[in-house]
Amino acid sequence: MVKKFRAERDPAGYNTTVIDMTEERQAGRMLEEIRTLPFLAEKRMVVVKHLLAAAGATPLLRYIAEALAAGQLPEQTILVFWEATDSFKGKEAKALFEKLIQEKFVYRFDPLTGRSLISWISDAVHAGGGAAANDAVQRLAAVAGGDLARVHTLIQQLIAYTKSSRRPIERADVEIFLDEKSDESIFALVDAIVEGRGKAAYEMIGEQERLGKDPLYIFAMLMRQFRIFLEMRDLLDREDGATSSDIAIRLGHHPFAVKKSLPTVKRYSFGALSRVYRDLLLIEEQVKTGRGQPDELLDVFVARRTLTP
Q1: Nearest CA to 21 among 61, 69, 65, 73?
Q2: What pLDDT, on a 0 to 100 scale, did the predictor assign at position 308?
Q3: Could you read off the pLDDT of 57-66 as tens digits, one per residue?
Q4: pLDDT value at residue 118
C-alpha cells in the first residue's frame, strides 16, 4: 500500500510516514502526523504500527476511538493501522480493535503454511528471474518459520548465486546460505584440501558426516567451490586488481562466498585449480556411472590431492 501510494500520489516522499509505536516518544509525533496537511498533494498516508499493543498508549487509544466514532479523523489523511496480532490485553485496545475491524478496508494476513507457502516460494523465485528444484523449494519452506522476509532474502541470494551458471537452484545451494557455520566448515575443508593437509581434511569430512551431511552433499559443495575459484581466477588473470565487491557483481556470486574465497584464489594459478576441478569432474562421472561409492571416491580424492601453487 505504501509503495502504491508513493508511486501514484507521493513520488517525492513528502507525504508518507511510518511510525512504530514500540519506539520511545512516538505518541506526540503520531498525533502531529495525523493532523498535518498534505504538502503539495491531496492526501497523506500515515502508517501506525503496534499501536494497540504498545505500552502506555491508553490515552491515544481513547482519542482514536472517539475521533473514529465522531468522524473527526482528518479526511486528507489515509490512516493505516498495522498490528502483528489480533489478541490484546487492555480494555481500550480490545474495544478499538473491535471498531477497526468493522471498517471498510480490513486485511488479515495469516502465516503461510503447507501448499500456500510452497506456492509463494515458487512464485518469488520465478518473479526474481530464477528457477528452483522441488527439493530446494521444500527445504526453504521447511525453514521459513513464518519469517517470509528472511526467506525472500534467501531467494534473492540464491538467484544471484546460480545466475552465472544458468541453472536451477538446488537443495545444496540452499544449505550454503542457511547456516554460516556450515559455510565456514566447507571453506575450512577446501583450504585443507588445497593446502594438502590430508589428515585435517579427513577430520572435517568426518565432522560433516556426523552432522548429517552425506558424501554427495560434501562433494557438491567442493565442486561448487572450485568452480567459483576457477571463475574468480580467470577474472583476476584478465583484470588484475579487481576487488571482492567487483568480482561478486561481475560473476553474480554471493559477496560472502567471494570474500572468503579470494585469499585462496590469489595463492594458486588457474592451471593448478583446473587440475583439482578435473579430478572432481572425474569423480562425478564415476558416481553417475556407478563405478564407485561417493564416500570412497571422496577419500581417494583427498588422499592423492596435493595442490601445487
Answers
A1: 61
A2: 47
A3: 888 888 889 8
A4: 92
Distance CA 192, CA 242 (A): 26
68: left (phi over 0), alpha (psi -120 to 50) or beta: alpha
Helix H or strand E segment including 245:
helix 244-251
Strand order, beta sheet including 77-82: 16-20, 44-49, 77-82
What phi-psi label fits residue 40: left (phi over 0), alpha (psi between -120 and 50 degrees) or beta? left
Q: Provide the pLDDT for residue 119.
A: 94
pTM of the prediction?
0.47
In whole angstroms, give the CA distance from residue 92 to residue 226.
Answer: 61
**Looking at residue 166, what DSSP letter applies?**
T
Instruction: Please give the Cα distance from 273 to 223 (Å, whole number).
Output: 11
Q: Give me the pLDDT at residue 213, please.
A: 67
How do residues 179-188 score in pLDDT, each as one tens digit?
A: 544 556 777 7
Give the pLDDT band of residue 302 (cuts 50, 70, 90): confident
User: Which contacts qualify for 151-160: CB closer than 8 Å, 24 or more apart?
Assistant: 151/121, 151/124, 152/124, 154/178, 155/121, 155/124, 155/125, 155/128, 155/130, 156/128, 157/254, 158/125, 158/130, 158/132, 159/125, 159/128, 159/129, 159/130, 160/252, 160/253, 160/254
CA atoms within 13 A on the CB side of 82: 15
Residue 234 has pLDDT above 70, yes or no: yes
| 43, three cell numbers | 492526501
Instruction: Tell me how far apart the alpha carbons of residues 215 and 279 are, in angstroms, rounded to a whole number.
Output: 16
Cell of 67: 475521533
- CA angle centred on 285, ends 284 and 286, rounded to 5°: 90
